Amino acid sequence: MSVTKVIIFEDEFLLANDLKRQISDHGYEVTAIFRKAEDGLDYLRKLESKEDFPEVILMDISLAGKMNGIEAAEAISGHFPCALVFLSGMSQLEIFEDAYRSKPHAFLIKPFDIHQALVSIKLALYQKNLENSLLHYQSELENKIIERTQELREAKESAVKAIQLKNEILTNISKQIRDPMCGIKGTVAILEEKSREMPDFQRYLKNMDDNLEHLFSLLNEIMNLNHDNQPFMSS
Q1: Helices marked H in 66-198
Q2: Is the whole model's pTM more than 0.85, yes or no?
């Protein structure tokens, strides 16, 4: 099992080393101690691999440099893969509201004992792992949404193409049927004109014309499936 690495930001040298000694006895490795936030941030920025980063940062709110612990925590949060624990004295409780903005994973109140320190560190690690899991699930969900959106887009494009193809087929077939029907209807009209004195023949022509009108009606019903086309007229 790998050792959990810890970095301490604390301007009180004796307190920082005492904290290092105590948590080291419980399986934690303190890889660095910084009195100034600026020095600690430079150290973090120069780390080259994820394995070099500490799992936990213990951050005192009051530090020796120009930047306080809250400002340093805000610079760390979201940029470095570390759980963050604030170290604070009882006299600093009024600034907790400001500290919450940097999203710490736990607080450790001074003066503290080793049991309190270990609980705070374990809580911070748990919170950080939970946060990482939520981010992982969020990323997976976003990827699935992107994939599903792409699938729906492709399905829509396929449906549009299918509709266009159906319209083209209906239009083509309908025209191929219409043209001979129009020719037949024109021929019927000519024969009706020339056979006025032939009642029996007129009845045959009338029957043929009625059948043509019925076929035109059926053709128009078919073309209603294709809303982009106008219905065919019999004349």
Answers
A1: 69-76, 96-100, 114-194
A2: no
Residue 180, preceding peptide bond in cis (omega within 30° of 0): no
Residues composing the chain: 235
User: How distant is the alpha carbon of residue 96 from its chain centre?
Assistant: 34
**Calpha distance 141→144 (Å, rounded):** 5
For every one of its 235 residues, what pLDDT tens digit does the chain have, with 9 covering 90 and above? 578 999 999 999 899 999 999 999 898 999 999 999 999 999 999 987 778 889 999 999 889 989 999 999 989 987 888 999 998 876 555 666 677 777 788 888 888 889 999 999 999 999 989 988 888 898 899 999 999 999 889 888 888 888 888 778 877 877 777 778 787 878 878 887 777 778 777 787 788 878 878 887 877 777 776 555 444 444 4
